[in-house]
Every structure is written in structure tokens, then in C-alpha cells.
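stage 2 :: seqdesign
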């Protein structure tokens, strides 16, 4: 199952709207087939592993991270393919929470006389498939918020200079993280100030994540790198119903996709933004700021993972903070996260945190209300 998990991770960032699943076929102690979800979500992991195994799949044990599907979609059910291949035993990480499956695949396999074992390395599988499961349970993708800052939590000097606070090893790690997410998201202020590309670079010929910019009025420069590459790399613009008409037409004309979202308190509602992205198929979003968008997501309790890159320099209070105003009066109101990893990256420190279950009273109350996004 550990191998199946590692294979499934190869599909992260590529499999949406489907889950990134890994599958291993074992016959008489020998691996005879391996597979993972193909780019775009099809073919699924199981038929690819079975095709590699060929006749050796008969009587085999199959390890798969997620319950095989049981419904007819664009392809036949994976449970049916496993039955037809004559496998003897299925070891599954977790059951599928998708209502179209939800135990039906396992029931189909058992009716065919196949031994079924579930719950193997389930905690690790649940973490790897958290985005897919969140879209089914809450109608929103998994959100990773990345903050690269000085020791004192600044992302730029008072004049706006930010390149580079962290070193090359940290920046390379950011590209690897982008590659494992379906989309990279920033606020309009960051798009205007930094003129970013938001692409994966230095990782070979990879499928690029969707680039998402949150901008209520679409007041973004049409001469930017994002605009110039909108036809070749997906660019989605989340905007309000009051976005400028001529600007909307201009962005349509250069190949961007517009996603209309609700407005709350004069700003885009972050919950509405994430729900719209989930409807469009995204399951894992990598947010790179800026401060206003970060504060909006944190305040609404919509950040699942914090990834910090801290550098050994101090900028001072006049610098730009990594997170904007949260309006907290008490420490008890602050969103809390639990540390899961620390690493030295070429002299910078990577620290990764997961949202504490239950969250803060403010964050929990805000989830259904929608705090403003920039």
C-alpha cells in the first residue's frame, strides 16, 4: 500500500477533477502491474495496472488507495474490470465518499467472491486524498497557503522589494509544491505588484496548474505576463458581478476563463470563490498570497495547510506583512495550526502546519458567513 500511495502522489496536480489514486498488482510475491490516475483523471489507476499485469492479474492481490468505482461514466467501472481480470483479493486504503460509489464498489467485489480488506494505511490515504474528499463533503477544494517571509514575517520592504527573500532551494521547493496542486492562486494586488507567471519551472515538461487570480473588478494589467500567456497556460479570473464590462470582454478575448463569485462586505466572498473552483473541478489549491487574500481565507477558516519559508533576515515593521488585517482582539480567536514538518532548505527553514480540528471560534463562525477576499 505504501507503494500505491507513492504512485498516487505522481498524479497530484494532474488528475482533477478525479482523485489521484495509486494501484499495485501482486502475484506470488512479485509486482506484476502498477498504475496511477492519468492526467485529466482518465484512465483510472486500476485498469492501467491491470493492463500492465495482463494474464498475471488472475489470482492476484491488488492494492489500491481508494475504493474502486462502481458507476458507469466515461469509462466502465473499475470494480467490474477487477472482477473480469479474475483477481483474488483487494486491499483498499479507504472507502470512497463520492455518493456514486460510497461502498458500492466494495459490495460488487464481495458479491463476485473477491476477498476485500479495507483501512490499510488509511490515515495517510485520507491525507493524500483530502482535496477530493473535501470537494465531496464541503463543496470546496483543499487550500494550502504558502508564505515566504523574513524572520519577522515580512514579504517585502517598505518600497515593495521582495526578490529574493528566500534562496534558490526554497524557491525550487515552491515549484515542486505548485506541481502537486491543481491550481496556483493569488490576489489582484499580488498580480499587479509582482507581475508573476505562476507556472512550474525547472521541473521538466510538466502539466501546468491552473493560474487563478482573485480580482473583484478585473482591474489587472492586460500587458502582464499572465495576460500574454493566457492562451497557452490556463488562467482563471474570479470576479464579482460588478466587474468592468469592457475589461471582461478583453480578458475573454485573450483566452482567460472568468468565474463569477459572490461579494460580501464589498469584497469577494472567499467561500464563494472556493465553491466556484470546486464546481469547475479543482480539488487542491496552492495560494501564494498576498496579505489581504491570506487574511481573508484565514479569517473564514478556509486554510487547511500552512507552508512557511522563513529566511534569516529582518526587514522591520515598515515592511509589508505576510498576512493582512484579521481584526482579532484575543489570542483565543486566532486560527490555530499544528506543526507536521520542519526542514532546512539551503539555509531557509520550511515549516508545514495543518489546521487544528475545531479551529478558533471566530474561524468556525466565519466558515458559513464568508469573510471578504481581495
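stage 2 :: out
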Amino acid at each position: 500500500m505504501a507503494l500505491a500511495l507513492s504512485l498516487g502522489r505522481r498524479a497530484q496536480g494532474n488528475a482533477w477533477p478525479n482523485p489521484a489514486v495509486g494501484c499495485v498488482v501482486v502475484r506470488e510475491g512479485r509486482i506484476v502491474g502498477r498504475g496511477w490516475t492519468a492526467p485529466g483523471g482518465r484512465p483510472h489507476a486500476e485498469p492501467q495496472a491491470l493492463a500492465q499485469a495482463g494474464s498475471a492479474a488472475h489470482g492476484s492481490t491488488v492494492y489500491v488507495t481508494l475504493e474502486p468505482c462502481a458507476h458507469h461514466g466515461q469509462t466502465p467501472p473499475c470494480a467490474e474490470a477487477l472482477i473480469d481480470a479474475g483477481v483474488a483479493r483487494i486491499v483498499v486504503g479507504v472507502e470512497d465518499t463520492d455518493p456514486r460509489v460510497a461502498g458500492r464498489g466494495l459490495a460488487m467485489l464481495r458479491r463476485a467472491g473477491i476477498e476485500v480488506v479495507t483501512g490499510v494505511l488509511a490515515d495517510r490515504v485520507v491525507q493524500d486524498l483530502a482535496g477530493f474528499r473535501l470537494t465531496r463533503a464541503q463543496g470546496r477544494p483543499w487550500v494550502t497557503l504558502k508564505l515566504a517571509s523574513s524572520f519577522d514575517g515580512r514579504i517585502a520592504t517598505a518600497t515593495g522589494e521582495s526578490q529574493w527573500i528566500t534562496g534558490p532551494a526554497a524557491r525550487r521547493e515552491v515549484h515542486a509544491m505548485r506541481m502537486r496542486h491543481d491550481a496556483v492562486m493569488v490576489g489582484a494586488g499580488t498580480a499587479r505588484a509582482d507581475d508573476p507567471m505562476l507556472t512550474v519551472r525547472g521541473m521538466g515538461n510538466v502539466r501546468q496548474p491552473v493560474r487563478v487570480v482573485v480580482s473583484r473588478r478585473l482591474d489587472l494589467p492586460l500587458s502582464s505576463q499572465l495576460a500574454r500567456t493566457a492562451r497557452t497556460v490556463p488562467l482563471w479570473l474570479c470576479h464579482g458581478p460588478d466587474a468592468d464590462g469592457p475589461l471582461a470582454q478583453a480578458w475573454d478575448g485573450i483566452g482567460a476563463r472568468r468565474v463569477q463569485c459572490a461579494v460580501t462586505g464589498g469584497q469577494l466572498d472567499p467561500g464563494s470563490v472556493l465553491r466556484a473552483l470546486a464546481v469547475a473541478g479543482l480539488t487542491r489549491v496552492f495560494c501564494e498570497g498576498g496579505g489581504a487574500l491570506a487574511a481573508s481565507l484565514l479569517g473564514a477558516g478556509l486554510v487547511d495547510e500552512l507552508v512557511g519559508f522563513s529566511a534569516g533576515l529582518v526587514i522591520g515593521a515598515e515592511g509589508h506583512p505576510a498576512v493582512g488585517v484579521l481584526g482579532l482582539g484575543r489570542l483565543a480567536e486566532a486560527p490555530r495550526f499544528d506543526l507536521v514538518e520542519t526542514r532546512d532548505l539551503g539555509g531557509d527553514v520550511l515549516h508545514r502546519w495543518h489546521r487544528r480540528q475545531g479551529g478558533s471560534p471566530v474561524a468556525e463562525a466565519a466558515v458559513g458567513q464568508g469573510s471578504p477576499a481581495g
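stage 3 :: structure notes
- The two ends are 42 Å apart (CA to CA).
- Residues 168-179 form the longest helix (12 residues).
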